Amino acid sequence: MVYKIAVLVGSLRKDSLNRKLAKQLVHLAPDSLELKLIDISDLPVYNSDLDDEGTVPKPWTRFREEMRAFQGILFVTPEYNRSVPGGLKNAIDVGSRPYGKSIWQDKPGAIISVSPSSMGGFGANHHLRQSMVFLNVPIMQQPEAYTGKADSLFDENNEIVSEDTRKFMQSFMIRFSEWVSANAKTE
Question: Of 88, 127, 167, 168, whose CB is crowded by the most CB atoms within 10 A?
């Protein structure tokens, strides 16, 4: 079976290190996963009044409907101020509402944090895990992926420079495929 996986990139920058890695992961994933990067840059900040009043912004509707088609989620995110970037947190909030209609429910996920710092986005990775517990997203526990010194990760063609890093990311994706297969809801 081929599982459709939504890839949410925490950085909104067009040339972000996280976006570069996410694009590489599409090629490193096994054939059992079909990855698609999902745009979250146009989502207005979540305000429950808009859901309550029936004046839902079109980007929220687009995002919610698009996300329902996926069996799993891969988060690739930097760390902002020891936590998750605001744009990614907003996408999580938009997808979790209105209450009882969360798009996240029971979708297996994984997190890769990428940062120029040596800590590799550890804080963002763990804060995101906390939100996923509440949203009932089973997050893969091992291997953990905190990629530090990511500003030297890519060559001029945005390819991963280090063979060890490429092998690790490929093994991460194989393990994620196994995780999705074991945890995805099939109908």
Answer: 88
Which CATH class for the 3-183 domain?
alpha beta
Cα-based angle 90, 91, 96 (whole degrees, multiple of 5): 100
The predicted model scores a pTM of 0.95
Q: What's the longest Cα–Cα distance across the chain?
A: 52
C-alpha distances in angstroms, 92 versus 10, 48, 66, 85, 111? 11, 13, 14, 11, 14
Q: pLDDT, tens digit, for every residue of 134-143?
A: 999 999 999 9
Cβ neighbourhood burial of 163 (10 Å; 0-12, 13-18, 19+): exposed
Backbone Cα Rg of the chain: 16
Tokens of 130: 């906390």
Structure token pair of residue 20: 């570069």
Contact criterion met (CB below 8 Å) for 151 and 111? no
As a whole number of angstroms, the distance between CA 24 and CA 152 comes to: 15
